[in-house]
Amino acid sequence: MTSAREGAETPIPATLNVALLACAMSAGAGALWLASRAETWPVRLLAAGVFSFVNNTVFSLLHEATHGVLHPQRKVNDWLGRVAATFFPTSFTMQRAFHLNHHRNNRTALEQFDYFRPGDNRFLKRAQWYSILTGIYWFFVPVGAVLFALFPGLLHRLRGTGTRYGEQTGADAYLGRLEAAPGGAIRGEVLLAALVQAGLVVGLDLSVTGWGVCYAAFAVNWSALQYADHAWSPLHVRDGAWDLRVAAPVRWLFLNYHYHRAHHRHPHVPWLYLGRYVQPDVERPSFLRVWLSMWRGPRPLPVSVEER
What pTM value is reported for the model? Predict the structure, then answer.
């Protein structure tokens, strides 16, 4: 929790956040338009690359909203979160439930995707691992949101309650959170996301290729960071993350998301101030080094590591 003093010293940059959200979504729409209009693949790929970064800015603001630090007024915070979620696209309520569950379970047995634990199905572990690295992981988020909105009863079948599958993948713990989530809100947010995406396609006359290459690039870019900031880190709920070193312009576009250990230790501190909480005496590997090491696959769980 953030102390009263910490909160006073790190006020939510509401005006800046709203401006960034508007700019990033506009830039993303422009990149989608250019990718659909480009006559050559180099231009199309350049547009996709731009989209992959500015849509991560949108996602970082969505991440702020899940912690209630996008805007100081709760209703405004949540509506801005819903708007940001449409560009992922997903449900804000669903994203918040999953992300806060991640903070509760970080680096516990439910979230050790980088290690082979005794009894793990190694094929399933590797499939899950490489789906993260290749961006397939992103695909399951919007598809899962739509499936939940249309067929909420599927949760019971997919959770794998009491099975090794449910424990190893974290499906039981994460999908279980949705059973207590407001289904009506999730369905409304999924509909909003669908309407926004349809509006982009129709209003900007987007092509399937242009839309697809942009979201494929975003999927890979987004997925890469989603576990590079945890891979091989200490098995500790708060300290089990890295404050990764990365080129400053990239870190700015991701709104300091690479300062992930600082975020896990101070989850209610807005992105603008996370640099203050990066401890210089703690190891800070480079993003590239961790990401490249991940391609070698999960490792055996170190016997010397004590879980907390």
Answer: 0.92
Nearest CA among 203, 196, 201, 204 for reference residue 212: 201
Q: Is the pLDDT of residue 1 over 50?
A: no
CA-based max dimension of the chain: 57
Letter string b/e over residues 121-155, b meaning 16 or more CB atoms within 10 A of that residue's CB: eeeebeebbeebbebebbeebbebbbebbeeeeeb
Residue that has been written with the tokens 């989850």 in this structure? 267
User: CA 119, CA 65: separation in Å to the nearest integer?
Assistant: 37
Closest alpha carbon to 102 in 271, 230, 282: 230
**180, 156 contact by CB (below 8 A):** no
Q: Is the pLDDT of residue 152 over 90?
A: no
> Measured between alpha carbons, how far is 58 from 65 in angstroms, rounded to an integer?
11
pLDDT in tens, 175-193: 666 666 778 999 999 999 9
